[in-house]
Amino acid sequence: MLEKPTLSVIILGQANSGKTTLAVQLLHSLGTINSSIMERVESGMQLDSSDSIRNYASVLSRTKDEIKRGRTMNLVYSMAETKHFHLNIIDAPANPFLKSMFRGISQANIGIVVLDAEIGAFEAGIPNITTMIRATYCLGSIQLIFCVNKMESVDYSKTRFMEIKSEITKIYKNNGYKNGNATVIPISALSSLLGNHNDDNILEPACGSKMEWYKGGRPCLLDAINSLKAPLYRYDLPLRISISKVFNLKGALVVFGKIETGILKLETEIRLTPHKKQFPPSMKIESIAICRKLVREAKAGQLVTIQLKTSLNPSNVKPGMVLSDFNNDYAKEVHSFKADIAVLRESPFRRGYNPTFNIHSLQTSCKFKDFYVSSNTIKRYERDENPMELRKGQYATVLLKPKNQIYVATVYSYPPFGRFLMWDNGNICVFGVITEVYTDSPPRR
C-alpha cells in the first residue's frame, strides 16, 4: 500500500476573520480534536454568547495571553488526515505578528487564506492580505486556496462573494501569481460549529437553500485540498532540519522542526549549525516523535520533535539553526552570499542597508555589502554595473552579509534554504534567491 504524501498547510487570515475557528472545526471534523475536548470547551456557555468563538479558538491557542485576547499570536501545529494526504496544519497569527507568520509560511507548501465576508471587514484587511500573499510567493510560490468566511453574516450573498472573489483574484495576480486562476470558496465556519452543515461548505459541498447559487460541481474546502498537487520532497539529498522551537525538558534538549530534505533515523549523528565552540562535534538522538508518536525514522516534509543526548544547555540553541547528518555532507556555516533580488521598497536604498532577513525558520538582520548589477527588467537586457542605489521595481545581483554566521544554500542545491524575503517596518522590501554561498570572505572582484 502506497504511503500518503504529506502536505504542510498554513492557515492565514486577517484578524477576526475566523481562521482559528476554521482550523478547529477542520481538525475536529477530520478526527484530530476529539469530541470530549469540544464538549468541554462548550460546557457552561451559550452558543450565541460573545465569548463562544474565543472559547473555540482556545482549543488551539496555547498561552494565557492568546486565550485572553482571543487571537493567535504564535504558530500552532496540528496534524490531520484526508483520503489523499497527511496534513501538517499550521495556524499562523495575523499582523502585527509578522515574525511568526513568515516563519510559518516558509514551512508550508499550501496556504489557506481566510477572508472576512462582513461588509467593510474584507476591504479594511486588504493591506494585510496583500502582505500575506506576497510573502507566500516570495518564500516559494506555494499553492493557495482562498476561503470567504462568515458568509452567514451577509446572508450567504452571491453578490458579496463575487465582489470579494474579483478583488482577491486581482491581488493574487498582482503579487506574483500571474498564471492560473485563484481558487476561491465561500464557507461558514460558525455554521459548521453550530451543526448546520448544509451551508458550511467545508467538508461536504453546500446542499442547503442558502447556497443554492454555489451548487453544480463546485468544490467545498476539503475537495479543494484533496485536488492539490503533492509536493516533490527530496529524500535523496543529505539531511537538513530547520529548527522552529526549542524546549528544555528537565534539562534535556528537545527541538521541533521540519525535515526539509533527506531522511532522519534514530541512529543518525546530528550536527548543529551554526556551530559554536561550546557545541559538541556531534550529538546522538534519544528519541524522534511525530505528533507525540515515537518513530524510528522520519522523512522530508514531516514535522518532528527530537530529543538529543547531550549536556548542551538548551538556551544555546535557537530557532533558525539547522540540524544535519554529521557523517553525510553536514550543513556548513555561511559568512556571506550572492543573491538575485527584486526590489519592492518604496524609497531607494544604498550599500549598508540592514533590514530583517527571513529564510526557512531563520530571522536575523542582514546587510547589503555590494551591488554588482541592476536592471529595470527581469531579463536584464539593459544593465547598470556597480549601481550606487537600488529602487523599487528593479532587479539586481547583490552581496549580502548576515549579522552572524548562518546556514543557507543556493536555490539550485537546497531550494528551501535558497529563497528569502527581507522586511522593514512591517513591509516586505526585497525578495530573492541565493545563487552563491561563501563559507569565508567572498572573492574580490
From TrEMBL:
Single GO molecular function: GTPase activity
Residues annotated as domain GTP-eEF1A C-terminal: 336-435
Alphabetized Pfam families for the sequence: GTP-eEF1A_C, GTP_EFTU
Keywords of this entry: GTP-binding, Nucleotide-binding
Tr-type G domain segment(s): 5-193
Protein family: Belongs to the TRAFAC class translation factor GTPase superfamily. Classic translation factor GTPase family. EF-Tu/EF-1A subfamily.
Protein name: Predicted protein
The species this protein was found in: Naegleria gruberi
